[in-house]
Design goal:
The structure holds two protein chains of two kinds.
Chain A: E1 4-13, E2 16-26, E3 31-35, H1 42-49, E4 57-62, E5 65-66, H2 74-80, E6 81-84, H3 96-106, H4 112-125, H5 141-153, E7 159-163, H6 171-186, E8 190-194, H7 198-204, E9 207-212, E10 215-220, H8 222-227, H9 232-241
Parallel strand pairs in A: 3-8, 3-9, 6-7, 7-8
Antiparallel strand pairs in A: 1-2, 1-4, 4-5, 9-10
Helix pairs in contact in A: 3-4, 3-5, 4-5, 5-6
Chain B: H1 10-42, H2 47-61, H3 65-75, H4 85-110, H5 114-122, H6 127-157, H7 169-180, H8 183-212
The chains are: A alpha/beta, B mainly alpha.
């Protein structure tokens, strides 16, 4: 059974049908990159996977459990699924250490004595161990995004979702964030990314999913998809993204 | 002009100032709790509760607080609820301060972006944990300047409690005036006392604010 199973998901905002029957499986350890034009439903699909949005019809299963906003173990479920946002969303009133340890402490994952060690550990993994006592506002965008990734890692998630995590960054800061994500990929983390970074999609992903007009239009391994797109929509998207 | 006759009343003046401070602090704390609870209710999903809070805010912000104090002190006893003057003033002033606090705190809560809430939810925190640890601290910081200036208005407004014979500063002044006939001197003195108390609170709030809200502001 796949780690994530998405079956014929529909989602409408007002009069706009954003997802028009999306089905997708993601296996454990897989790195899946979702690409497509803005408005194609990529981010909405990602937000449905951890119940930030509810689906209208269709079903999403993660680790065998059906995902929806009223699921009984929603909090426990979200601890297993990390999500990193475009806007970082660090808590401005908490230092880096507390940003990372707040949720593990409040959810009883760790006790106080181990909190700082946990923060040090995950910060080391994103290369920011020296920033443990900084305020988020004192960090660059790239550093803030790496702290946001570390904050997710502290929950030891089984699945990581990345929602255009480099789109708000200055070009020279994109690389440091992608490097961290590449390292996570090498360690076997299951990852689903929405991204405009075609280089990253090509080099790191196991599979590319091209979404168009609320549907999975075409998918496959990056080498094949980028070299021989089957649909004219993907071909024109790849041409425009270059 | 002669301030000397007032000298023997210094203990009464100090006692009056203390009662004024008690009224202010009690009403401020109770009102602030009302404010937080009311703001949460206003943002909540229970419509009748929202209407109730709305009605309360409009009622207390659009009527004289002197009449609010009178109603608690004079009118409630006719329904069998007899409250001593000081307590009546506390209740009325708490409700008065609470009505303003609800709107101030609500504006503070509204200033916190939705994505902060989502970030908390996505880390597996409960609704209460998100509110308490993620939304409330920065919301209070944003509301803090308005709360403190409202607090000073409350401090000055406690003088209305004199009208139900609470022994606060203004009431004491009336008593001293009736004994000494030194109207100008008495009111000049308590004016200085009010001013000193208000300025002291402003300084105190600046210190508390600097200690409580240490994180850097968004650039």
């Amino acid at each position: 059974m796949a780690l994530v199973e998405i079956r014929d998901v529909h989602k409408t905002f007002g009069k706009t049908e954003v997802l028009k029957g999306v089905s997708l499986d993601v296996e454990e350890g897989e790195i899946v990159t979702i690409i497509g034009r803005s408005g194609s439903g990529k981010s909405t699909l990602l937000r449905c996977i951890n119940a930030l949005e509810s689906v209208d019809t269709g079903e999403i299963h993660v680790e065998g459990a059906r995902v929806h906003a009223k699921m009984p173990d929603l909090k426990k479920f979200r601890q297993r699924v990390g999500i990193v946002f475009q806007a970082f969303n660090l808590f401005p009133h908490l230092k880096v250490e507390r940003n990372i340890t707040l949720a593990p402490l409040l959810t009883g994952r760790i006790d106080k004595a181990k909190a700082r060690a946990l923060a040090e550990d995950v910060l080391t993994r994103v290369g920011l161990a020296d920033k443990i006592d900084a305020w988020p506002e004192q960090l660059s965008g790239g550093q803030q995004q790496r702290v946001a990734i570390a904050r997710c890692l502290a929950m030891a998630p089984h699945l990581m979702l990345f929602d255009e995590v480099t789109s708000a960054l200055d070009p020279e800061l994109v690389g440091e964030v992608l490097k961290v994500m590449e390292a996570m990929a090498k360690q076997g983390m299951t990852m689903i990314l929405v991204t405009h970074e075609m280089g990253f999609a090509r080099n790191v992903a196991n599979r590319i999913v091209f979404m168009h007009q609320g549907r999975v239009w075409e998918q496959g391994p990056p080498a094949k998809l980028f070299a021989n797109p089957e649909t004219p929509e993907l071909a024109s998207f790849i041409a425009s993204a270059k | 002009m002669n301030f000397l006759p007032l000298w023997r009343y210094q203990n009464q003046l100090i006692d009056g100032a203390i009662v004024t401070l008690e009224l202010t602090v009690i009403a401020a704390i109770a009102g602030l709790l009302i404010g937080i609870a009311g703001a949460v209710a206003l943002k909540g999903r229970i419509a009748p509760l929202r209407w109730l809070v709305r009605g309360y805010i409009e009622l207390f912000r659009n009527t004289p607080s002197l009449i609010q104090i009178f109603i608690v002190f004079f009118v409630l006893p006719t329904f069998g609820l007899k409250i001593p003057a000081f307590q009546a003033a506390c209740v009325a002033l708490s409700l008065y301060f609470g009505a303003y606090s609800v709107e101030i705190i609500r504006a503070g809560l509204d200033s916190i972006p939705r994505n902060q809430v989502e970030a908390g939810q996505c880390l597996g925190l409960s609704g209460w944990q998100v509110f308490r640890h993620i939304v409330l601290p920065p919301a209070l910081r944003n509301a803090y300047p308005a709360v403190t200036s409202q607090f000073v208005l409350l401090l000055l407004g406690t003088s209305l409690a004199s009208q139900v014979a609470t022994d606060e500063l203004f009431h004491v002044a009336g008593f001293i005036e009736s004994r000494t006939y030194r109207s100008f001197e008495v009111y000049a003195v308590i004016c200085v006392v009010y001013f000193a108390m208000a300025m002291s609170f402003k300084a105190l709030f600046a210190i508390i604010g600097a200690m409580a809200f240490r994180w850097p502001r968004r650039r």
